[in-house]
Design a protein that fits this description.
Blueprint (H helix, E strand, L loop, with lengths): L4 E9 L7 E6 L2 E6 L11 E5 L2 E6 L1 H13 L8
Antiparallel strand pairs: 1-2, 1-4, 2-3, 4-5
Length: 80
């Protein structure tokens, strides 16, 4: 089973056009995530990420709902 986690894009690195990357915040954790294959993402948007790759863009309400559910299940890195 796979789990995609919602995160908020903090910055986007366009220095390598062939591999667009972003700094993404997942609660307290910040990770480098590949956003190359998700169109139309901007700073402040939420994405679903799995294994360092953005799978899709999601709206903020859905992202926050999912993050709250993960916190309730005990995901420690997601605590604010």
């Amino acid at each position: 089973m796979c789990l995609a986690v919602p995160g908020k894009i903090l910055s986007i690195d366009l220095s390598k056009p062939e591999l667009k990357m972003a700094r993404v915040q997942f609660g307290e954790a910040i990770r480098e995530i590949c956003i190359q294959w998700v169109d139309g993402v901007e700073i402040g948007d939420y994405i679903l990420a799995h294994v360092g790759t953005a799978l899709s863009k999601i709206d903020e309400a859905d992202a926050l709902f999912t993050l709250d559910a993960l916190r309730e299940m005990g995901a420690p890195e997601l605590d604010p």
